[in-house]
């Protein structure tokens, strides 16, 4: 390339950085960050974002080699850093949620929301947590009380499992008008969700809308 | 009183700053376990009495039955307290992995029980194998990046370090401007502080400047607040 920062190249790169995938991962990241429970893993999106990161890395490298303007390079580098941060933070938040609620996740259908690697991670984490609790508490308790999942042998269901608080309030914004939305089962509370308005609602009530992608958490 | 030791154990934990590990309270912990055994003994003897009277445990409500009920629930409560104590501690131990990396300083290790130390290493390995499977380093970028390079002051002689295509000599007290990603591995093991401080970029930088920490390989860095550099 004789003219490394010709208009064309610049346009190319900026359209790369401006594609909706980065916006999408930002959205997924924000939702994941605000939701008390783990959401569906965006596998395809993560793959696409990683490809773009690689492309950006190549662009940065190329322009450094060509000795182009330092400012331009640092702008690209910044863009790359931010996208990388989004991706890492997204994966990290998920792992930290898994760490917190691993048993609950592996017992419920939340399990299907994990990626293959996350499933492996969950299994491993559960095994070592169980080992820790076994060694320090459970093995020293009398017969009938040594279960990892139940308080005692007489409990009918697993009542020793930490679960996420779905009752917490979250900030959310609807992308398009959802219309009148019923907040509870009794139908007493109905909210008219207008596009781009900010609401504070219990996560439990709008769980379905978040999962369907009709509403974004902020 | 039944259940007092267990509640003291948790009170001690609750009264300390969140995210900070307290010294593992072996003594109180063992006391609660012992209490559990006593409850169990009482339970057994009460059950034996019920059996001798040839009564159905589920339908009768005499003194023995109620006694057994109380012992059973005291035991359950103790178990819940012990589990909560361990789970809370395990959560802090896990957060330490994210904040400090795979090697813990001695003063923190001293606060853990042996099983917890093992747990930390095991958990750390689990995270690492996830990262290598995904081919991504999740411990970098704990705070959102503001600019691509950072100003660093070297706190300890490191020698020549190869960074990508060039190498620089990191001698003590010298100042450098490095790419964030290059500098981060040297900064990660700097201080032990609650997560709240890390979110605030300014507070984070200051902490990094003031707290000097000798890493395991003698690799140590501190970040300079930008003002000092400009002035």
Structure description:
The complex is a heterodimer of chains A (218) and B (231). Helix content of chain A is 54%, strand content 10%. Chain A has 218 residues and is mainly α. Chain A folds into two domains: 7-132, Methane Monooxygenase Hydroxylase, Chain G, domain 1 (Up-down Bundle), CATH 1.20.58.1030; 165-218, Ribosomal Protein L9, domain 1, CATH 3.40.5.60. In chain A, strands 4-1-5 form a three-stranded antiparallel beta sheet. In chain A, strands 2-3 form a two-stranded antiparallel ribbon. Chain A is flat and about 75 Å long. The two termini of chain A are 43 Å apart. The model of chain A is unreliable at 1-18 (pLDDT under 50). Residues 189-231 of chain B have low confidence and may be disordered. The N and C termini of chain B lie far apart (64 Å). Chain B: This is DNA replication complex GINS protein.
Notable features of this structure?
heterodimer; A: 218 residues; mainly alpha; Methane Monooxygenase Hydroxylase, Chain G, domain 1; Ribosomal Protein L9, domain 1; 2 domains; three-stranded antiparallel sheet; two-stranded antiparallel ribbon; 10% strand; flat; disordered N terminus; B: 231 residues; two-stranded antiparallel sheet; elongated; disordered C terminus; nucleus (chain B); GINS_Psf1 (chain B); DNA replication complex GINS protein (chain B)
